[in-house]
Amino acid sequence: MSDTNALWQAALSYLKDKVPPEELESWFLPLTPLQSNGHELRLQAPSSVYTRYLSEQYLPLLEDAVAMACGNPLRVVISASPTKEAETLPAFTFNPRYTFDTFVEGPSNAFARAAAVAVATNPGSGYNPLFIYAGSGLGKTHLLHAIGNHLRQNRPTLRVSYVPTEKFVNDLIHSIRLQKMNDFRQTYRQVDVLLLDDCHILAGKERCQEEFFHTFNTLHEAQKQIVLTSDTPPHNISGLEERLRTRFAWGLVADIQPPDLETRIAIIRGKAHVEGYDLPNDVVSFIAARSRDNIRELEGYLHRLFVFMTLTNRPPTLETVREALYPVLPSERTSTPQEIIRFVAHHYGIKVADLKGRDNRRSVAFPRQVAMYLLREVLNLSYPEIGRLFGKHHSTVLYSVEQIAAQRRKNPNLDATLASFVEQFRS
Ligand SMILES: Nc1ncnc2c1ncn2[C@@H]1O[C@H](COP(=O)(O)OP(=O)(O)OP(=O)(O)O)[C@@H](O)[C@H]1O
């Protein structure tokens, strides 16, 4: 192995720990080391798309890797291969976790999923373009990757490109600046399937719309499949030219609505299973109830729970999940058990220590029962959880909560007072 090759292999081993495997495969492995001396390492990329992307996104990291590999700083120079005339988008590595199998189907997304499956099975022949719209975190990108993964597996010779619209816009700006519009056009028009994510980003960008209009027409006329996603339906994207708006609606428009509780529960179960966890029903329902219209948010809660469990070595119980999520759940951030206990003690003019103590005189026992009632009513804590906070058996808590509930029904003043407490803690 030449010195240059050995240097590059050592730099790649360093990069392996610094970038995700798919990035390494897409962007770094295709590079060829050409030459090195005491000052610089020259690398050749398959096309100027690579050169540009690597220079913008990864040059400092590449220089670090090379410095680590040879022990002193070297300049890294990347040039595009002169022999490759046609520019192509680099083979994109689709997220292996985003497949049709892992996409949980429910009434809110069944239509969009079926349309995506149809397109993945017969690209270019049916619904073209397929336009999927939904709010944030509801699975648009997941479905695009699922189409990509399906095609890679079943039609490996097709050129399938996943492009975030932001990348399309950046590439265009770059190409205009470097006067490389021909390269740009070739890149985007030489695909069999174009998966364009978040196309609403085109709104208000006239030059980008003009260019995408021609890209769209070229692909569509050649019966190449186009799939677009957006956060709103075509007719609601303000700042979008009419000719694009109508084209976006030419094929099939499908929406994804926020999932119902059962679907959210199934999604959480699926994600937990992938991570190797089997969560009890009450924990899954607790998380599922915390966000109605964003799966990404639910995933965030789930990951927070897993990290918390790992760091504290706690089992997945309701108590654990509540504690893990306190700082990130807006409705619960305002009232913690300790805040409620402090509030009740203050309201009745006694000390927190008395409230949690063994004094059973009515002046203390009644506020204690009120505190237990509020913890149940406001935070929905279980009887054993409340019991632990006061050092009491859960049957005592049950009795106290029932006592206060019964008195509330009989005593309008107490009812109004407790209603205002509950309201205050919930708001
Ligand atoms: N039906 C589903 N089944 C399984 N996972 C889902 C489902 N819907 C969404 N998800 C998961 O939710 C997360 C967010 O989804 P995704 O990134 O596809 O959302 P998006 O609609 O593209 O959001 P944005 O508009 O913010 O980019 C992903 O991890 C995805 O796997």
UniProtKB/TrEMBL annotation:
Residues 310-427 are annotated as: Domain IV, binds dsDNA. Plays an essential role in the initiation and regulation of chromosomal replication. ATP-DnaA binds to the origin of replication (oriC) to initiate formation of the DNA replication initiation complex once per cell cycle. Binds the DnaA box (a 9 base pair repeat at the origin) and separates the double-stranded (ds)DNA. Forms a right-handed helical filament on oriC DNA; dsDNA binds to the exterior of the filament while single-stranded (ss)DNA is stabiized in the filament's interior. Its main location: cytoplasm. Keywords: ATP-binding, Cytoplasm, DNA replication, DNA-binding, Lipid-binding, Nucleotide-binding. Residues 93-309 are annotated as: Domain III, AAA+ region. ATP binds at G137, G139, K140, T141. Belongs to the DnaA family. Residues 1-79 are annotated as: Domain I, interacts with DnaA modulators. Pfam families: Bac_DnaA, Bac_DnaA_C, DnaA_N. NCBIfam families: DnaA. The gene is dnaA. This is Chromosomal replication initiator protein DnaA. The keyword Nucleotide-binding applies. One of its GO terms (cellular component) is cytoplasm. The keyword ATP-binding applies. Domain I is involved in oligomerization and binding regulators, domain II is flexibile and of varying length in different bacteria, domain III forms the AAA+ region, while domain IV binds dsDNA. PANTHER family: CHROMOSOMAL REPLICATION INITIATOR PROTEIN DNAA. Residues 336-404 form the Chromosomal replication initiator DnaA C-terminal domain. One of its GO terms (biological process) is regulation of DNA replication. Oligomerizes as a right-handed, spiral filament on DNA at oriC.
